[in-house]
Design brief:
Elements lengths: L2 E9 L4 E10 L6 E7 L4 E7 L2 E2 L2 E4 L2 E10 L5 E9 L5 E4 L11 E4 L20 E10 L3 E4 L2 E9 L2 E12 L6 E4 L2 E7 L2 E7 L5 H8 L2 H5 L1
Parallel strand pairs: 1-11
Antiparallel strand pairs: 1-2, 2-8, 3-7, 4-5, 4-8, 6-7, 9-10, 10-15, 11-14, 12-15, 13-14, 16-17
Length: 220
């Protein structure tokens, strides 16, 4: 795995995730003819290899994508999957409910150790590392926070916004993570790097810093 690009819309009311994931892959050996991804419970809508439609099949919890030819070590290829799903493992939903009418709207992931596969088709095993980026489209005023650096926020129309984060340090895929909510944000720096704290509305800076304010000292 060289890079993973996840571009999805998260509907907290319907508790659905839908969009695309693009994997940039470099074969380790000669003759790679198929890519297998973990995707249990997800509905696969399409697959392409380097932009051309590809044949795919579902083999239990695995998605198998036939390549257009055999690829050799040192080559790279882009495998893109269109999908949707309503996961209840790996991606968790929070909403107002009977008895808790003031409960906030939130969604968050927990990938360790092999649970990210339930919300995005990917190679979900910790023996490889990759860079990644997430483009998370959520309904305003919600904010999406993810690993890495916030590249930008764009208007997606009809009251939706897309938050683009990028992680340029290779990591195992179980570490891909995000949290969606109406966050309050407070921030420090450590060695010229941003250290950000996102807490629920109404928590306030004093309480947030009582919980997280020593983070730069811990990192040092």
């Amino acid at each position: 795995m060289r890079h993973v690009r996840i571009d999805v819309k998260l509907d907290l009311e319907l508790e659905t995730v839908a969009g695309t994931v693009t994997h940039t892959i470099e074969p380790l050996a000669l003759g790679l003819a198929e890519v297998a991804l973990d995707a249990p419970g997800l509905s696969i809508r399409s697959a392409t290899v380097n932009g051309a439609n590809a044949t795919f099949s579902i083999d239990g919890p695995r998605l198998r994508i036939a390549l257009d030819r055999r690829y050799s070590a040192g080559e790279t290829l882009d495998v893109r999957v269109g999908y949707e799903g309503s996961p209840n493992v790996g991606l968790y939903w929070v909403r107002p409910e009977d008895g808790y009418p003031n409960k906030p709207w939130q969604a968050w992931t927990q990938g360790q150790d092999e649970d990210n596969r339930y919300w995005v088709p990917l190679y979900d095993f910790p023996n490889d590392r990759t860079t990644w980026e997430t483009l998370l489209t959520v309904k305003a005023p919600l904010t999406a926070v993810s690993n890495g650096v916030l590249v930008g926020v764009t208007d997606a129309g009809d009251g939706w916004r897309t938050f683009h984060h990028r992680m340029d340090q290779p990591n195992s895929t179980y570490l891909i993570a995000f949290a969606v909510g109406a966050w309050e944000r407070y921030a420090d720096t450590w060695r010229e790097k941003p250290v950000e704290y996102f807490v629920a509305p109404g928590v306030g800076e004093e309480t947030a810093r009582r919980s997280f304010g020593v983070t730069p000292e811990i990192l040092e």
